[in-house]
Amino acid sequence: MFGIIRPCRHRLSERLRTSWMAHLCGLCLALRDEAGQLARTATNYDGLIISVLVEAQSPAGTAGGARRTAGPCPLRGMRTAAVARGEGARLAAAVSLALASVKVRDHVADRDGVFARRPVAAGARVVARRWDRQSAGGGSALGFDTAVLLDAAARQEELERSTGLGGSVLLVTEPTETATAAAFAHTAVLGGRPGNVAALAEAGRLFGRLAHLLDAAEDQAADAAAGLWNPLTATGTDRAEAERLCRDAVHGIRLALREVEFTDRALAHLLLAHETGQAVDRVFGHGASCAVGSHQAPGTLPAPKPPRSTLAGCAAWTLMACTCQLLCCEHDDPWSRKRRDSWCARNCDCSDGCDCCDGCDGCDCCDSCDCCGCDC
């Protein structure tokens, strides 16, 4: 999983949490259908926004058959689920696959970890080339040319070689902005809203800028330790200026969204108008994390279960780990049998204290939004 949009489940209403997971699972399955099981590793949080935008603009919406029931999956604790399907999920898969191929090439070029080994690097190049072809085929079937994404990646490499101290960091982010603008704009075509193309292209351009800058800020220390190129360090952009550019981008995204005509704007609005701001807060260290635990009311707790033996606990842990219950689902502790939140829940981004409507009252991004299940 990679991406800047990582909504905490406590900031999502039940309806939007279900929809978010439907798009995440839909992207994963679309990648499998388009390019095989290995391609599911290209599933990413930002890519599913493409699927969300297509559905949000579609006249049919979720009631028009944009969901299907998927079979049991280990990542859902071996449960079935309604998942997104159709052109939105397929476009998200094509875009994600192209971006993943670029990411694999970057790892090979930087000789990161296992990619420093020649056999691994050679195999990774083969996978990247195959993903390029499959991404191009999937995009072409939807009228989207993924070459714009690969051209942007090639231009990115040239800019990184030529940009030095004192250079504009926004010159470095331009290829990402161009690629993301193209993908966002095409959601309007697939959603049957050609009038939204310009506004979504602008929202996509600024989202690309935001994603690039946040990634650079988040990785700056690690890149310096590893001797890797980082746009902020290379251009001498300090973190205060990087944060200012990020917050300007968030504001611009919100303004652009005002011009977009949606059938159901709730999830798209939450992800692009609210969660982008949360991402900036997370990366630049604003806000304190909240404790996430059981919310069961006092007096209603069930009788405690007897703890398992060491051997039985190990067996239970193995089963839960293999079915991803430890990662994704609320569960009984393998040994103590006390009720526990999943790893994802315990490590969620509740940087605003789980105040799902923080800033909705009178802020410049909301117009009677239904993004949190409350009246804001």
Quick overview of this protein structure:
This protein has 376 residues and is mainly α. It is built from 13 helices and four strands.
Write the layout of secondary structure elements.
Blueprint: H1 14-35, H2 48-57, E1 67-73, E2 79-84, H3 87-110, H4 118-141, H5 147-162, H6 169-190, H7 197-226, H8 231-235, H9 239-258, H10 266-283, H11 310-322, H12 325-328, E3 331-332, E4 339-340, H13 343-346
Helix pairs in contact: 1-2, 1-3, 2-3, 2-6, 2-10, 3-4, 5-6, 6-7, 7-9, 7-10, 9-10
Mean pLDDT: 82
Radius of gyration: 21 Å
Main sheet makeup: 2 strands, antiparallel
Number of strands: 4
The percentage helix is: 55-70%
**Secondary structural class:** mainly alpha
Overall body shape = globular
Question: What string, H for helix and E for strand, traces the elements in order?
Answer: HHEEHHHHHHHHHHEEH
- Give the neighbour order of strands across the main sheet: 1-2
H/I helix tally: 13
